[in-house]
Amino acid sequence: MSSGKEMRDLPDRTFWLASEDEIRNAETTDVYFVYTLQILEKKGLDPKVIMEVYLRNLPYPDGWGVVSGIYEVAKLLEGLPLNVRAMEEGEIFLVSPNSIIYEPVIQIEGKYRDFAKYENPMLGLICMSSGISSKAARVKMCAGDKVVFSFGTRRSHPALAPMIERATYIGGFDNVSNVLGAKMMGKKPVGTMPHALIQCFGDQKIAWKSFDEIMPKEIPRIALVDTFSDEKTEAIMALETLGEKLYGIRLDTPRSRRGNWRKIIEEVKWELKIRGAEKVKIFVSGGLDEDAILELRDLVDGFGVGTGVSNAPTFDFSAKIIELKIDGRDIFRAKRGDIAGKKEVYRAHDRFDDIVTFYKNPKPRGYYPLLSDLIKNGKIVRKFKSLDEIRESVLSKVKILKNVKPNLRWV
Predict the structure, then answer these.
(1) How many CB atoms within 10 Å of residue 262?
(2) C-alpha span between 221 and 266 (Å, rounded)
(3) pLDDT 10s digits, 217-268
(4) If you write DSSP's letter for every residue of 294-352 in order, what string do you get?
(5) How far is CA 116 from CA 48, 49, 96, 97, in A?
(6) Are 224 and 194 a contacting pair, CB within 8 Å?
């Protein structure tokens, strides 16, 4: 018997997700911002404020993150009567959990009522994206010169797939597997084959041959070699089946079957090598983290990393008013636990030595500013770099971070 309380279809959409217009109109905000706007309007109060977006703590002990989502924040705030400064997309920012000081990644200056309700979607645009980019950068740091592909969108909401792939690429991944994400990035997606293909045929050799027969020549012949038999056996079968066409093999061994995964991979490499197939590349995937990548990178040619990056810890950015402008005067006003006053962030030209200072203080010699104009009087004034330029910049900086400890201080 029906209870009369069944889930009903939504009246205006199929899936539980916001449209671009709803995000752009700040309809995804928290209701207390709506309350605040109603109260301020009734009381005739609309101060000019400076708000800073910053992070106090990282889920990693090394003190750095990669900020991404700046472009989307610019598109969100475009057209509002605001001045916005921000770090560049893909910039490395530093965090010192033992100090009150922080590096603002975004500064907003304008009448509070003009942007109050945008705080919620603005934070949402950078919190998850920056968390993914930062995790991706650490994974790529561990992988070194070995390729890393993003395989993780299947375990996230499909509406977020393009954002996830963009963020992983900014963090240094070499390519992505999601079709729409790759299309929006102007890339060609990469992938091999799922276990389901082999299961449908019921025979590894027939499945591999069919892949070779039907797929375009430009797609590498990478055989999945752990469906029915052990990895060594199927690797040899794949070589015997495809011969010189075999570009590589992929091991996606579940944890319950891995045992000593390094030894399994060594077995596979040995058996391929003595058969004259030392050029066949070996890729691994499945539940990989930084430790596993460090352990295996000398043996394999590439990694497929999924959930560990697509579901990376979301960064807990905050957005707080730190100053008001009244009658041309700076009114310093910060909540408990925060520090007031508009800040500048400078970095040494040759190292990750950052200085945070009050914006009226002189620029330190040998340093350059990390904050620059993003929006002026509602108009986007920044020329954004391409994704490839951003990725290369991140990779070059992560290479330095691999060998040095970043330093954040204030003067």
Answers:
(1) 15
(2) 21
(3) 999 999 999 999 999 999 999 999 999 999 999 999 877 777 889 999 999 9
(4) HHHTTT-SEEEE-HHHHTPPPP--EEEEEEEEETTEEEE---TTS--S-EEEEEETTSS
(5) 12, 11, 28, 28
(6) yes
**Cβ atoms within 10 Å of 177's Cβ, excluding its own:** 20
Strands (E) across 29-165 are located at 48-54, 64-66, 83-86, 92-94, 106-111, 147-150
pLDDT of 312-340, one tens digit each?
999 999 999 999 999 889 999 999 999 99
Question: Is the pLDDT assigned to residue 6 strictly greater than 70?
Answer: yes
Residues 334, 336, 341, CA angle at the centre, nearest 5°? 25
Distance CA 302, CA 125 (A): 30
Give 161-175 pLDDT, tens digit per residue. 999 999 999 999 999
pLDDT (0 to 100) of residue 1: 47
Laid out side by side, the sheet with 407-410 consists of: 367-369, 343-348, 353-358, 407-410
Sheet of 379-380: strands edge to edge? Answer: 329-332, 318-326, 48-54, 106-111, 83-86, 372-376, 379-380
Rounded Cα–Cα distance for residues 78 and 376 (Å): 9
**Which residues have C-beta within 8 Å of that of residue 277, sequence separation ≥ 6?**
239, 246
Q: What percent of the chain has pLDDT over 70?
A: 99
Task: Give the list of residues 6+ apart from residue 62 with CB closer than 8 angstroms, or none.
Answer: 401, 405, 406
Q: Quick check: pTM over 0.85?
A: yes
Alpha carbons 364 and 281: distance in angstroms, whole number: 50
What is the set of domains in the chain, with CATH numbers? 20-128+314-410 (3.20.140.10), 132-310 (3.20.20.70)
Q: Which of 309, 315, 19 is nearest to 155 (CA)?
A: 309
Asked if residue 378 lies in contact with residue 372, where contact means CB atoms within 8 angstroms, the answer is: no
